[in-house]
Amino acid sequence: MTAAGLLLTPATAPSAAAATGSPAPACVEYVQSWRYTDVRNGCGDTVAVTVEYTNGQWAPCRVLEPGGRATFSGYGTGGNYVTGLRTCDPAPATADRPAS
User: Fold this and answer.
1) Is the pLDDT of residue 25 over 50?
2) In what order do the strands lie in the sheet with 47-53?
3) DSSP for the chain?
């Protein structure tokens, strides 16, 4: 996997999940296509990351073990390109569930 996508310009509006995070370490890399953005953790530590897009769309926070991979949305037909990766704070699994 290459880090070619890391050379894009910064986002004008970060995704909601990324708003409080810092830039992901350089050892976390991504490759994007029109349909998918593949992210790989090349670091020796576990990281939680999200993706920033040019239009500021929301992206989930994913926890990646060393050597782990995750798939996010790609840039699509509207050209919503990834502008970078940010660290994030993953919400507890119960946070997305409605109260019973």
Assistant:
1) yes
2) 62-64, 47-53, 82-87
3) ---GGGGSPPPSS--TTTTTPPBPPTTEEEEE-SSEEEEEE-SSS-EEEEEEETT------EEE-TT-EEEEE--TTTT--EEEEEE--PPPGGGGSPP-
* Residue with tokens 């296509």, as numbered in its chain: 33
Joined together, the tokens standing for residue 21 give 């995070």
List all residues 6 or more positions away from 96 whose beta carbon is below 8 Å from its beta carbon: none
Would you place residue 20 in the very low, low, confident or very high pLDDT band (cuts 50, 70, 90)? low
Strand partners, 50: 86
Q: Phi and psi (nearest 5°) for 35? A: -100, -40
Q: How far is CA 12 from CA 9, 53, 57, in A?
A: 9, 9, 11
Q: Would the pTM of this model clear 0.85, i.e. be above it?
A: no
